[in-house]
Amino acid sequence: MLCLNPLNELLKLSIENFFLDAVADSGKWLPLHKKELALHENYRYFNTGLLCLNLKFWREEKIYTQIIEVLSKGKFPFVDQDAMNIVADKNNYPIKYISDRYNHFFRVDGRKQPILFRKDF
User: How far apart are CA 51 and CA 41, in angstroms?
Assistant: First the structure.
């Protein structure tokens, strides 16, 4: 991850009542991927490129154990991201969605890189 500006604004966000702060993912591939993961249709899948975790919540809910349990049951294209989204959706954990300016992919020439979904995992 490369941070080009101070993160003061991001650090001021309150996470107290949330599972985590994250950027909602997008793409033409997402509806099919959510279906493959058995996520609810209206669930907003998040990207794990940048996360602010509520560690108190994670400890109380034993999130790490839940993630390991999910991962032990299958193979996932976006390993950590898929597992965290499955756990969040299954438990209806509250997520604070933040601006996508905190999670961009850029090519070497500086243009935004489209996120491509790979089915060859």
Answer: 23
